[in-house]
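[Discussion] Sanity-checking designs against the backbone

I'm trying to build intuition for which residues belong where. Below is a structure token string of 477 positions. I'd appreciate it if someone posts a full sequence so I can compare it with mine line by line.
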């Protein structure tokens, strides 16, 4: 019996989907119907709470594909678009996807036709869902609540499409160490650090309205707001007003926009100011950087970290910026990267106690994730702004050799970005007669494992040995 003989020619079928986002269920039923050669106009796809085709046979079982039914063909492009399009809120999306799948069996290259209305529509659905997911990633704000068993973080979000379950993995990975809940009108997600649970739809009143962490978040947002780059239209496009009610920093936006011109003028004036003579001692530089607010990093809730070591050291070691532990202790290279550096210095025969150790950027740049401060790389402008201080340290210490670890450190010394792989292992003359040597930052090794880490660790060791040998040469009269 062929597929056509297996199906009644004028029968209308209704497929009741168990969930609006159950694309797996839809895909299985669609594949079977295609193999039974059921045309698109004979199938009604009904979501929970929806109504079916007036002519459909609700009580009739769906046909079973015959054993000799050919496999269903679907291009990679179709599968990629269908994955998101199935999550759209358009009630006609499953009918559209089935129609395209039906046509693919007869025209395998239909997805390449950009003018085809079905193809254009499924591309539009895919784009809308991806944008909604992006907004969820960007605008979910957790608020802390205290429970008997500890801290819990709750967020309220109103998605336009059925994206909640599809984005569960993103939030589980991003906030793995937190206990959190995301509440939406479509359903809820709850993560206890080990298990993800789903729950029924919620109301906004179920979510808390504020917590102490929001003050820190607002301070951070105000500090990174750059009036010179303000484009209100672009900002509203990326952060529509409908999301503002859930964002603690949104209350600051009207005031920040209103004062943007005045702040921009102040920034220009500050940039044109003559900074005069640098402090005449390392101690004075240490005091001055505590008050430095010349870039947004200095406006965060952090502390400046001054260099330390011999004030007449022949070797000056420059990192990129303090980390979380360095910020807390007020000393450079005391965290995991510093411990790894100490181990490699000892292996290469370099005494850290005889070197002067500092960073190209003096403040810890971070972004908040709950109560955690996560490292962010400084921008080129922020590195260049901080060159004033690193140059002052170098003028006072007068090292014979400077070891810059990482691209940011190299830029802090040279004023331009260089490729570590191209310049490592050889001296770069500096204007004061000293030499610059460039290598990777030890935190880079911490991000690697296996063979890749072994390879980079060997290169790092070779760079340090070369520095030790060059220091010995420079010390020879």
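Best answer:
Here's mine. Compare freely.
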């Amino acid at each position: 019996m062929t597929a056509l003989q297996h199906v009644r020619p004028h029968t209308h079928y209704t497929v009741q989907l168990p969930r609006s986002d159950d694309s797996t269920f839809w895909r299985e039923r669609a594949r079977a119907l295609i193999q039974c050669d059921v045309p698109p106009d004979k199938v009604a796809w009904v979501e929970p709470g929806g109504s079916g085709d007036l002519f459909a046979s609700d009580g009739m079982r769906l046909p079973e594909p015959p054993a000799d039914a050919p496999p269903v063909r679907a291009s990679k492009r179709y599968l990629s678009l269908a994955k998101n399009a199935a999550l759209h809120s358009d009630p006609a999306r499953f009918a559209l996807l089935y129609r395209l799948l039906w046509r693919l069996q007869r025209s395998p290259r239909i997805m390449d036709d950009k003018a085809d209305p079905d193809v254009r529509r499924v591309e539009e659905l895919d784009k809308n869902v991806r944008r909604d997911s992006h907004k969820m990633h960007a605008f979910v704000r957790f608020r802390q609540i205290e429970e008997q068993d500890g801290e819990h973080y709750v967020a309220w979000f109103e998605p336009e499409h059925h994206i909640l379950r599809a984005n569960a993995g993103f939030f589980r990975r991003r906030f793995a160490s937190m206990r959190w809940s995301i509440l939406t009108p479509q359903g809820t997600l709850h993560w206890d650090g080990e298990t993800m649970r789903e729950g029924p739809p919620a109301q906004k009143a179920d979510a808390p309205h504020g917590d102490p962490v929001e003050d820190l978040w607002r301070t951070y947002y105000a500090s990174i707001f750059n009036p010179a780059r303000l484009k209100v239209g672009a900002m509203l496009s990326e952060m529509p007003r409908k999301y503002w009610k859930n964002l603690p920093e949104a209350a600051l936006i009207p005031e920040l926009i209103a004062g943007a011109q005045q702040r921009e003028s102040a920034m220009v004036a500050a940039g044109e100011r003559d900074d005069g003579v640098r402090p005449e001692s390392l101690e004075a530089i240490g005091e001055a950087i505590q008050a430095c607010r010349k870039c947004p990093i200095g406006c965060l809730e952090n502390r400046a970290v001054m260099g330390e070591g011999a004030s007449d050291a022949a070797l000056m070691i420059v990192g990129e910026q303090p980390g979380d532990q360095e910020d807390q202790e007020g000393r450079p290279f005391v965290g995991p990267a510093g411990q790894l550096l100490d181990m490699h210095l000892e292996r290469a025969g370099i005494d850290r106690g005889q070197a002067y150790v500092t960073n190209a950027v003096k403040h810890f740049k971070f972004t908040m994730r709950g109560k955690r401060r996560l490292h962010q790389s400084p921008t080129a402008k922020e590195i260049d702004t901080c060159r004033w201080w690193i140059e002052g340290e170098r003028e006072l210490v007068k090292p014979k050799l400077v070891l810059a670890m990482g691209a940011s450190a190299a830029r802090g010394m040279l004023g331009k970005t260089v490729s570590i792989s191209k310049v490592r292992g050889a001296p770069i003359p500096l204007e004061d007669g000293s030499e610059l040597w460039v290598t990777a930052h030890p935190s880079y090794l911490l991000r690697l494992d296996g063979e890749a880490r072994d390879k980079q660790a060997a290169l790092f060791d070779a760079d340090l040995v070369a520095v030790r040998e060059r220091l010995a040469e420079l010390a020879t009269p």
